[in-house]
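User: Second chain of the day. Same drill as before.
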Amino acid sequence: MSTEISTAPAERSADRPAYRYDAEMAARIERKWQDVWEAEQTFRAPNPGEPGSEKPKYYLMDMFPYPSGAGLHVGHPLGFIGTDVLGRYLRMTGHNVLHPMGFDAFGLPAEQYAVQTGTHPRTTTEANIARYREQLRRLGLGHDPRRSLSTTDIPFYRWTQWIFREIFESWYDAAIGRARPIAELRAEFESGERATPDGRPYGDLTEGERRALVDGHRLAYISEAPVNWCPGLGTVLANEEVTADGRSERGNFPVFRRNLKQWMMRITAYADRLADDLDRVDWPESVKAMQRNWIGRSSGARVRFAVPGGSDAIEVFTTRPDTLFGATYMVLAPEHPLVEKIVPAAWPSAVEPRWTGGAATPADAVSSYRAEAGRKSELDRQENKDKTGVFTGAYAVNPVNGESVPVFVADYVLMGYGTGAIMAVPAQDQRDWDFATAFGLPIVRTVDPGADWAGEAFTGEGPAINSANADVSLNGLGVVDAKRTIIDWLVAQGTGEDVVQYKLRDWLFSRQRYWGEPFPIVWDEHGPVSLPADRLPVELPDVDDYAPKTYDAGDADSEPEPPLSRASEWVNVELDLGDGPKAYRRETNTMPQWAGSCWYYLRYLDPENSERFVSPEAERYWLGKDPERAADDPGGVDLYVGGVEHAVLHLLYSRFWHKVLFDLGHVSSEEPFRKLFNQGYIQAWAYTDSRGMYVPAEEVVEDAGPDGTPRFTWNGEPVTREYGKMGKSLKNVVTPDEMCDRYGADTFRLYEMYTGPMEASRPWSTRDVVGPQRFLQRVWRNLVDEGTGASTVVGTEPSEDVLRALHRTIAGVREDLPALHYNTAAAKLIELNNVLTKRGTAVERDVAEPLVLMLAPLAPHIAEELWQKLGHDGSLAHTPFPQADERYLVDESVEYPIQVNGKVRSRVTVAADAGQDEIRAVALADEKVVAALAGAEPKKVIVVPGRLVNIVR
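Assistant: Same format as last time:
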């Protein structure tokens, strides 16, 4: 296709040159080159075996966006532009660059819109994606369009379902530390190689018993789990969707903690590998620390406290078993399954009134308290400083001293952490101290805090005290020795074990929503059955009502009814899964939004493959291990760029799925993302009115008050200004469309890259965008006649000074771009252009061409146009990046300050390669130095090469 720009518009005024680079001309140039790139598939990344794949490969990837109806604001493209700059540079340095873009498109907003309007979520989602694609295209991002995908595409979620099926059909063999097909586990039971829990032959079990036994080992399984149930919305919510005061972020409905049957992923089986392999990836240390803290690996002891009169013991995990002698009461989480079993019919005699909550019976007290606790979020329960609880009426026996300790229910203990029960040692834990103080419980110190300690709970280390029985004494031992001694004693007594514990819980993997991936699961009378791969995809049915059944906001005992459960013809099916036609019921929950984002980076590699989710060849080529990088290189995406807000969940979930796929032989790499980079945020002023509500920032009027200080008003009323992350909620959004309209995409790109380091958050100031625009205008004027549009570049030889400036710029930009130091790279280009501008003469071709090529990654459209005007055909996208000539990087001369007795007396300039004798001679001959010496012979002349000459008189 022709790449000639159209003639200048006739409406240009006489005093406005026809070929001046302004927003109007920038828009025409940008549209032209975007069309060229698309038509010529400029950014097509060849897979192995295709022409071009012999180049060094580089897989460069952004965390893909959710396509909201609001479109992009100027904060979103910061990382996208940054990766595009790097991708363009790498292509020019001879790499085969894969830089794809897709959309994380399942989720609540489209479903909410469907509920309100009856519009199918797919209709809304696809319209939003089209809007995003147009915005991204306008920014000139060099993505490979063949590889674009959406998690809502049926061919994509077919493979999401297939991967779930692989996880469901797997179990974790702790003996060898990896996942294996569930069929192998079943074969071990059938052969007798693996014994059943009660010792009966596997063949003697009923079908239901066999299924339950095998299902209990699966990596994806159904479990009664404590969840955030929101009756007002009719769905289970993730912790992130619940506010600190225990209400839904959307709609502000009460949220209750309840045990419900849910799909779970056994991510805990991979806890050690997820923690240990962080040492093998090139990630920010802060992100690694967040993941390690989330996994929460700690060593300690599991201790059993017997409950008199019952067969069950209360198990606790503690990292400080050396403090057991100070355990004076126990606490169970309100959701703990033992609560109902141990509660007696009546209160024991002489019970403390403050322990009962004013209830007539223990059952009444516990029931009332559990209902109250169910209305709080986990965050609120953890952060609430007011310790509440009720006595269960039961006691347990401390195994180290035989003392009966009361058992309470309190909401500061969570079922999702440890065993959901704690031994409370108030002298060594501040939360326990506060609770013991509030309820009048004993406090026994078991660690000596020292004579100077005047505080409450002592959480430090010291010698054990008050810690002995007839068989064992810890007194005088340090923490390490005391822990080892008491663990050995507990093991010998049969009341404890040495264990490693994790904060990480299995992953809740189901939602009562419509707009999500259907599970590839059907149910028969014995439980869940996975559909064969050739039955996939399971497509979402059309429904009349997209909303789950909602209830009175306070109806904590209501049951979820997902939208899919009402599609009876879809739910109830007859299938032949290999044992004859049978009636089945489809799973009516859907997967959470995390599902597609767990593996999308793999589908980018081979998006048109209908036989596999990715071919082994493509996966090995783009993600395979590279021992030349490191002996234990885990493989993965070469660079993954995105916000730090995904530091834990998305990245942890992706790592889990990838490790399962590795164990099962589907991928050769052990980690999904070899290197991670977190970009900063765009921040902007926001404004709140007298109610504390945000008002549209663009409608705020700024003027000066009576005292000259700035004041801000909205609709004539004063508002308060604050600084925050740009976003819809703060009503301070500026869109890239506005910036492209006013300045052009290249100016917008350059502004975002120039305002600060990629990893730093930075302020947005529209008025400052004109600076990068003026720079691009000066580059244009230096190379193009604004009246005719012709090149003004000449073929003469550049001067020595200009060549030195050019090659120093090349060397600097070559160092900055791969390091993502785009702000300093832009500054060097501006400095070089200023050198050219100040001369007032035509620019030489040997300078103009390298300048244009260096500018191309940052401002690609204007660079392409200038390259064409310099007489080149086609795109410069794969043109070699300039190389610095070492000759021009060495200083010809060096200035030396001359000190006489420590005081600078003069300065001399000598050749850069001058020897010490020559430098000494030049220094001593300087007239100011001669005057300072006044005819005296110097005692010493010290030459510090490249720095100074020090003369001692």
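The radius of gyration is 35 Å.

User: Great, on to the next one.
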